[in-house]
Amino acid sequence: MSQAATLRAFVGELVAAGVRDAIVCPGSRSTPLALALRTTPGIRVRVLLDERSAAFFALGLARTDRRPVVVLATSGTAAVEFGPAVVEASLWRVPLVVLTADRPAELRDRGSPQTIDQDHLFGRAAKWFSELPLFDGAPETTAHVRSVAGRAVATAVAGPAGPVHLNVPFREPLLPDAPLLQAYDAEPAGGAGPTDAGFARPFADVVAGNRSLDALALEALADRLCSVERGLILAGPDDDPALPGALASLAAATGFPIVADPLSGLRAGRHDRSSVIVRGDQLARPGPWSTGHRPALVFRTGAMPTSKPVVELLVASAPDLIVIDSDAGWREAALLPATFVHAHAAATAAALAGIIASRRGAPGDGAWRASWLAADRATDAAMRAWLSGLAEPFEGSPMSALADLLPDGAVLWAGNSMPVRDLDGWFGSIERSIEIRSNRGANGIDGVVSTALGSAAATAGPVALVVGDVSFLHDLNALVAARLHGLSATIVLVNNDGGGIFSFLPQATVSTPGSGLPEHYEELYGTPHGIDVGPIVTALGGEHRRVGPVDLHVAIADSIVRPGIRVLELRTNRARNVELHREVAGVVARVLATEPGPP
Hints:
By secondary structure, the chain is an alpha/beta fold. The strands form three sheets. The protein has a six-stranded parallel β-sheet, sandwiched between helices. It has a six-stranded parallel β-sheet with strand order 9-8-7-10-11-12, with helices on both faces.
C-alpha cells in the first residue's frame, strides 16, 4: 500500500470518530495532511493564515458546535503559535485535536531549517501526546495510525475534555504518491478500509458514560441540603445546556436562591429563572447586607465565579461547601474546605431535587430566599434607572443593550478584563435562549476575536462580541479569517485607549515613595496607544462605525441582522469609567441599606 492510503486511513478515522471540521494553516511540511484533510469527504476545511488565530478559531468552533475540531500547522515556530489556545482549551475543557507536521528523525537536532523539538511541545496542557511513524503505507502502520486517530478523538472528548497533540513527521517528497480519494482494494490489518463514503465502523470505537452517584451517596447529599435554611446555589461558568434546568429544579426543591454567573447559562433561556440572582456581584460586596446574608451551605457548579466579591463572600462565610464537577475536577480557588462530588452535575442536581421534593414537598418562598430575591430586584431596578439617566459613554452599556436586543439562537462573547466583568454587572435575566461565552480558562486577552469568529462559523444565529481595545489589537488578524470565509459578527469595541482594568487596581493609586508609581503608571499599565482602528478594520474587509450613548442601541440592532463584520467603536475615558462604576456601586449600597435585615 502507498503513503496516500495511510494518509487516507488516518483522516478517515478522524471522521469516523466524530470530527467534522479542520482548521488548516499553510505550510510545506504539512502538505500531505493538508491535502488529505481537504480531499476527505465528511470533513470541512477552513484555511487560516495565522496559527495563533487559527487555534483560537478552532476553540470557538469546538465550543459552539460541541464537537472536536482538528487544527493543523507545519513544523517549527508555526506549531508553537498554537500554545495559547492549547492552554485555554486545556483549562476550559475544549476538545481539540492538534496536528503538527515535523521533519523526520534524521533531520532533527542537526540545524535543519524550520526544525525544533516538538516532542511534548505543549507540556501538560495537552491531555495526550503521540508521535506517529512515517506514513509508509505498510498495513501495520495503517492500522496503528487509525488506532491513534480514534484514540486521540476519544481522549479529547472524554471528561475532562481538552486538547491532544499528534506530531506527524514526513520525508520529502511531500506530495502524495497516489490519489488520496482512492478506496482500498483490500482491508488493512484490523478492520474495514475506507471508501469515498468513509469507514463502515471506527477502528477504535469508544463507549463512555456520565459519572453517577449511587442511592446512598445521593441520600447523604440530600441530608446535608435539607439540614440548612441559609443555603445558596452558586452556578459558576459552565457550557452544559442541561445544567440550567436541573439547577432550577434543585432551587425549587430546596428553597435556595441561585447566584448565577453570567457564563453559567442560568441567566438566559426558557428554564425556570424565578430563583436566579443576577446582581450577585453587587449584593456580595462588603456591607451590612452581605454580612447579614452569609450562607451556611453553598452548592457550587462550574468553574470559579467571575465576580471577586462573590468569591470573597464565600471566604468570609466559610460555608459547608459542596463542589460538583462532571469531569472529576478540583476547581476550588477560594482555598476552603470542600466536598468534591465527582458526578455529572446536571443529572446529580436533578436527582437531588427529586429526593428533596419527595421528602418535604414544595418548600415555598421562605424568608431566606425571599430576602435574596427582593434585594436582587431592588438592585436591578436601581441600576437600570441609573443607566437610563446616564448621558455619557459607559462601558457597561453594551452588555445592557445586547441583553435587550439579541434574539433566540444568538451567541454573545465577552472579552476578558473589563468586558466580562461588565457582562456580570449588566446582563440581566432574559427568556431568550442565548449562549453567553468567554475564554475564562486562562483568562487571557489574546485570541478573543478569533474565538468569537470560530463560534460564528458554527452557528446560524447572530454572534456578538464585546472586547477592549488592547485585546482587539492583539487579535486584529482574526478579521482576515472573517473575510476569507464570509463570516458575520457584531464587534462592540470599547476603546478607552489602554488597559482599563488597571485603573481599578492599586497600581493606579499607590503613591509610596520609591515604588515607581504613579509616575510610571501610564507607561507600564495604562499603555495608551492612540491608534485609529477604523482604517485598519476597513482594510481587513470589515465595516467600522463610531457610536455613542445615544445611537448605541440602534447601531447594535441594525448590525445583528445584517451579514458581514461590523466594528462598533464606543470610546470611553478610563478614569471616568472608574468613577461611574463607583457611582453605581454607591447607588446600590443606598438601596440595600433600605432592605430588610437578615432572616
